[in-house]
Specification:
The protein has 177 residues and is an alpha+beta fold. The chain has a single domain, classed as Chemotaxis protein chec (3-Layer(aba) Sandwich). The protein has 7 helices and 8 strands. The chain has helices at residues 2-21, 44-50, 74-84, 92-102, 120-125, 146-157, 160-168; strands at residues 29-33, 39-41, 58-62, 69-73, 106-108, 115-117, 131-137, 140-145. The chain has a 6-stranded antiparallel β-sheet with strand order 1-7-8-4-3-5. Strands 2-6 form a two-stranded antiparallel sheet.
Length: 177
């Protein structure tokens, strides 16, 4: 019986380790409103999915390719930083990339009432007004001004079939296509 208890204890710890290292896949697109101070209430559906991540906090940063913000759960941010830490800092282009990638990044938390404060400089960068869209992007959440989001979706709709074929239609070792 003692051995069985030890095995269960090992499996219990193993499950926690595996759970902690899982990539959380977030789902959904949500319309929100920001108040005059730049705070937005996390939508209930998104907050429910992010509950395990609320304790650790988040990093909010400018997107590289779009005029939106990216909200990284802290565990995802740390994984990304581990990859970036492998870059050779004695190469100018690597230093330039790191500086520009991390420009404006902020640690943010969801307050007790479920609100997230978007810093003023990031609000300006993303042209965020009162109407906001929070859109899941696998393991992060994009935060958009509603008009810019709709425009980006409309613009992308024209090429989406070609893009889907190019990105997902490739033969690879997993034999997905």
């Amino acid at each position: 019986m003692v051995k069985c208890g030890k095995i269960l204890g090992i499996f219990g710890n193993y499950n926690r380790i595996v759970y902690k290292n899982l990539v959380h896949s977030l789902i959904g697109t949500y319309n929100c409103k920001a108040d005059a101070k730049g705070r937005l209430m996390l939508p209930a559906g998104l907050k429910k999915q992010m509950t395990p991540m609320l304790v650790d906090g988040f990093v909010l940063r400018r997107s590289v390719f779009q005029k939106c913000l990216e909200l990284y759960p802290m565990t995802e941010w740390q994984l990304l930083m581990q990859k970036m830490n492998k870059l050779n800092r004695f190469k100018k282009k690597n230093n330039d990339f790191i500086r520009r990638f991390s420009a404006g990044a902020r640690v943010v938390e969801v307050d007790a009432t479920g609100r997230l404060l978007i810093p003023k400089d990031l609000t300006v960068f993303a042209n965020i007004s009162k109407e906001i869209v929070m859109s899941s992007s696998i393991n992060i959440v994009e935060i958009w001004d509603k008009e810019l989001y709709e425009q980006a979706i409309d613009d992308a709709a024209l090429d989406f079939a070609d893009l889907a074929e190019e990105v997902m239609g490739q033969d690879d070792e997993d034999e997905l296509s």
